[in-house]
Design goal:
The complex is a heterodimer of chains A (69) and B (243). Chain A is mostly helical and 69 residues long. In chain B, helix 1 packs across helix 2, helix 2 runs antiparallel to helix 4 and helix 2 packs parallel to helix 10. Chain B starts with 6 loop residues before the first helix and ends in a 6-residue tail after the last helix. The chains are: A mainly alpha (69), B mainly alpha (243).
């Protein structure tokens, strides 16, 4: 799985097990990155509104999801 | 049989959870419950406690210093996290994302470990074997009030909501439940039995007074007399007038 050819074959795989696992993993990555980045933004003094604007969600949503982290 | 919580006991438990969270504890213990009773001036337990020289601020401080949280990071959880992270790393590699490199970059630039809490997504269940997803909506057993279960993944609540009860608090609640059932069995007839209040603030207070929890003991030592408190609390458990 190291060379580029293998990689593209996997990416184009029509095996649902593999494709869906990639989707799940991307969500997990996005969730975790979001937590880290929101935390960082807060540390740097960003307002919830500013964070929400960039994430394109409501201020309430981002506050409820991350205010206790 | 389910033992109902009356309003006072429900408030006390909710306040206890709030206090535990404010203090940064990972569990709700008996000490938090005692402070929770002190946080509701409308309660009968509050009156008894106040009459005997107890107050919320003192109690909270003592619980803060005497509550013993469980050891952090139980191994099972971190194993689960690691397994989930490894699964996802493989899945991402298949579409050309090197998760370890992302993790390294986050560590270098932000000083945080991306893998920490990886499997700890609110409401997301990790399948351990295939074909079990149909069980997701299975109803939980009767006591499903704690723990981050069954929440929508996009749900608004933080994963830290719903602190677990400590073993000591669970045992205490169990004892109270038993005492309610025992009193009902002792009642002369079924109507009387039904009138015996379920989980009440006074019953919780009596149970707490008998607890050997260190935080509870520390708080109880601050009042003007535990025996007087016990007598007043017990008198409220089975009042002549309805509670």
């Amino acid at each position: 799985m190291n060379d580029a050819e293998d990689l593209s074959e996997n990416a184009a795989s029509n095996d649902p097990e593999q494709g869906l696992a990639a989707v799940r993993a991307l969500r997990a990555l996005a969730d975790r990155l979001e937590a880290v980045q929101v935390h960082n933004a807060r540390d740097q003094g960003w307002s919830w509104q500013a964070i929400a604007d960039v994430l394109q969600v409501s201020r309430q949503a981002v506050h409820q999801k991350h205010s206790r982290d | 049989m389910h033992t109902r919580f009356d309003t006072e006991s429900r408030i006390a438990v909710a306040q206890a959870a709030d206090i535990a969270r404010e203090l940064g504890h990972r569990e709700v213990g008996p000490g938090h419950l005692l402070a929770g009773l002190l946080a509701n001036p409308r309660g009968t337990a509050y009156v008894a406690l106040r009459d005997h020289g107890f107050d919320l601020d003192t109690a909270r401080d003592l619980v803060a210093s005497h509550h013993v949280d469980p050891e952090p990071a139980p191994d099972a959880a971190s194993d689960r996290e690691r397994a989930a992270y490894d699964d996802d790393r493989e899945a991402l590699r298949a579409i050309g994302i090197d998760l370890d490199r992302v993790r390294e970059a986050v560590r270098a630039n932000l000083g945080e470990d991306l893998a920490a809490g990886w499997a700890d997504r609110p409401g997301r269940e990790r399948r351990t074997s295939r074909g079990r997803r149909g069980r997701r909506h299975e109803h939980h057993h009767e006591h499903h009030d704690q723990g981050p279960r069954g929440r929508g993944r996009r749900g608004p609540r933080s994963r830290r909501e719903g602190l677990p009860f400590s073993p000591g608090l669970r045992a205490l609640l169990r004892d109270v439940r038993r005492s309610v059932l025992r009193d009902r069995l002792d009642a002369d007839n079924r109507d009387d039995a039904r009138r015996i209040p379920a989980m009440t603030g006074a019953r919780l207070l009596v149970a707490l007074i008998g607890s050997d929890d260190p935080a509870v003991q520390a708080v109880l030592a601050t009042g003007t007399g535990v025996e007087g408190l016990r007598a007043q609390a017990e008198a409220t458990v089975t009042p002549s007038t309805t509670a």
